[in-house]
Amino acid sequence: MPVEGNRPKIVVTIHGIRTTGVWQKQITPYLAKQGLIPYHIDYGYFLALAFLFPPLRQRQVEKVRKEMRRLVELTGASRISVIAHSFGTYLAMEALRADNGELKYDRVVLTGCILANDFSWTDILNPARAMVMAVRNERATKDWVVSAAAFASRRLYWITRLRAGDAGRTAFEQKHPALLDYQTEGGHSEVHNQLKFEQWARFIAYPLLPPDILDLIIIELDALRQEVARAFQGNATLIRINLFAPIAGALRIVPGATVNMNYAPELDLKISPDHGATGTAFKQNTVAFVIKGDRGWGGNLLPGKELDKLHPQLKWVLSFPIYSKLRETVIAVVSIDGLETLPAPLQADRNSDEFKGTVMLPYPFIRDRISPYLDIAFRGEKAPETTV
Amino acid sequence: MKIQTVSATPTTSKGEDTGVFTIKITGPFDSSNTTLQAARNIALRTGSTKMLESLDRSIERMEIIEKDNEG
What we know:
The complex is a heterodimer of chains A (388) and B (71).
Chain A: E1 3-4, E2 7-8, E3 10-14, H1 22-33, E4 37-41, H2 48-52, H3 54-75, E5 80-85, H4 87-98, E6 105-111, H5 121-125, E7 132-140, H6 144-154, H7 157-160, H8 167-170, E8 179-184, H9 194-205, H10 211-231, E9 239-247, E10 250-259, H11 276-284, E11 287-291, H12 304-307, E12 314-324, E13 329-339, H13 353-360, H14 362-369, H15 371-379
Parallel strand pairs in A: 3-4, 3-5, 5-6, 6-7, 7-8
Antiparallel strand pairs in A: 1-2, 9-10, 9-13, 11-12, 12-13
Helix pairs in contact in A: 1-9, 3-4, 10-14
Chain B: E1 2-5, E2 12-13, E3 16-17, E4 20-26, H1 34-46, H2 49-60
Antiparallel strand pairs in B: 1-4, 2-3
């Protein structure tokens, strides 16, 4: 189940004008398949004339903002994801802008988008503010509706006071690694189809990995475990591997993305960036290594209650950052660890080539064979089919 | 390729020994690098063929290890 901490992710859908959002009902099973909880905002059949009339439009923004705030308060979710169509894209982003910062989105899918083409995504996606974590803009080449919205904004602004555009046809001007752009041949609702519904659900569920990608990653992690056991002259049964990713403000094990992890408390680990080997690898984009000495983990920075979750026999942890070229940042950490004993090569002088060669050896494997799957999952796409 | 031990001694926080060693790897990968040669030798010696394949692919592509994470 996609988790926000230990809560399922909530997805708000918002329809457009002159419709009651048939697609919202159609997409529900696809969201449920990925373990997401749909919440459909239905504000009724909204006339085009009402859309052009500023007080009615602003009243609708405020109603949507309040409904989402109430949803957040009731569920305790720190972020919600959004799938919006047409006027719904305007409502979603205006509600975010009008809010005082309590409302934050996780992942957003825009279809038939009428936002202004110069919409300031870099500000909203800026990690320091992180009002939105990632956006997928689904454009359609023959979407005359968004062109009409752009016209109403450009030529009739003195009446409509509308700041809109045709980003649903011609794309946003700003580029950002977390702003994904997809183009489809067709009209305003062209992307409301099964294939897209599935992709959006997978996109929103991230970093939960859908079964097709998770299976491939586990195969690779297990192969890595065997290889590491050989290279480190260790016992494979004492070596474990975990994939950590940022989930709800901390690094947590991606559900299911573990190998040989049989100690249940560790599956609930919550690590802050820069804490321990895993957090250090993530924050500093370095390989990080930590050993448990005779006096424990030294002044280890993991808080006590997190340290208490560790396997009592855990002896060492070697963590590797996964840097995404697509998103231009570290997106995950692969942590390899071992129980009971410290393998001989890891006891060598830390400035020796033998030591450095040993600890860097898994890195190209991780970059080569695991990292690409995470970028595929981030985009909501399926793993490429392999031919036998 | 440079493989630099960023902290030859454990990193510290508020004067406390954290026990975390960090090793910065920057590129592009250069087959003449002694650490890289050591890594290849370990993979060859121990039969870690998949890690060796990935290492050689990195050298072939002259991969550059990415810039620091600022997130």
